[in-house]
Amino acid sequence: MVASVTSLGRSGLYDWMVQRVSAVILAAYVLFLLGYFVATPDLTYADWSGLFANTCMKIFTIMALVSLSTHAWVGMWTISTDYLKNGVVRFLFQGFCGGVMFVYFVWGVQILWGL
Amino acid sequence: MGPKECEEAVNSNRPVNLDLSKFSFPLPAITSIIHRVTGLALFVGVAFVLWAFEMSLSGEEGFNAVKGVMQGFLAKLILWGIISALLYHLVAGVKHLFMDVGIGETLEGGKLGAKITLVVSIVLILLAGVWIW
Question: What is the DSSP string of A64-89?
């Protein structure tokens, strides 16, 4: 067994659970937005900004952003531990992915902040 | 392999690194690798989505600019690509949830699950293409 300090929860079972819970939240968010687009063919700026000004939608969006970060971490971690055999390369790749996820999260929150 | 490497290989309890290029992949293996590739693609695609999201909420002008950009063929193609990856990843993910609760865990079930994943996602991807154009 390989003991890993870079997995999200130091435990395969915990990562497995995080992956599923975040997946369900992301699926709900994506299906809601796709449904919204299909149901609103002539989308205006007023509709669109009104949707995201709603507190519920802000909470839902930030939930999706947190889920995206953790889901992507577990996913990219799995890929990197499977294919990148060199420890230094793997560590740098995981660090890069973690940085990108952090940027995505802060960027997403910042977009919602002023609405 | 020299004697030293040979000895290391025999004494190592780590799994053997198989040569994947010499394998014939069964369908469930192919659907699994596509799940990974689409996940990786989405990780990159999120940057485009956030860019469009930010611009669309920056004001009336930005919103119309995104609408304008999305009329272009290349933008539509990128959008279709991202939505296709998303739909496939979603369908393959739902299959995982079914397997987690014990549905389709047998060899036959795995093969059928892979077929269903492919068919359902291809139908959804085609529908998304029709919707975008």
Answer: HHHHHHHHHHHHHHHHHHHH--SHHH
> Quick one: angle between helices B27-56 and A87-113, nearest 10?
40
Chain A residues whose beta carbon lies within 8 Å of the beta carbon of residue B53: 108, 111
Closest by Cα among A4, A3, A19, A10 to A91 = A4
* pLDDT tens-digit map of A35-58: 999 999 899 999 999 999 999 999
User: pTM of the prediction?
Assistant: 0.88
Q: If contacts are CB pairs under 8 Å, which of residues 75-114 in chain B contact chain A?
A: 86, 90, 93-94, 96-97, 100
Answer yes or no: are the C-beta atoms of A52 and A58 closer than 8 Å. yes
Contact B43 A23 (CB under 8 A): no
Which ipTM score applies to this complex? 0.91
pLDDT exceeding 90 applies to what percent of chain B?
A: 80
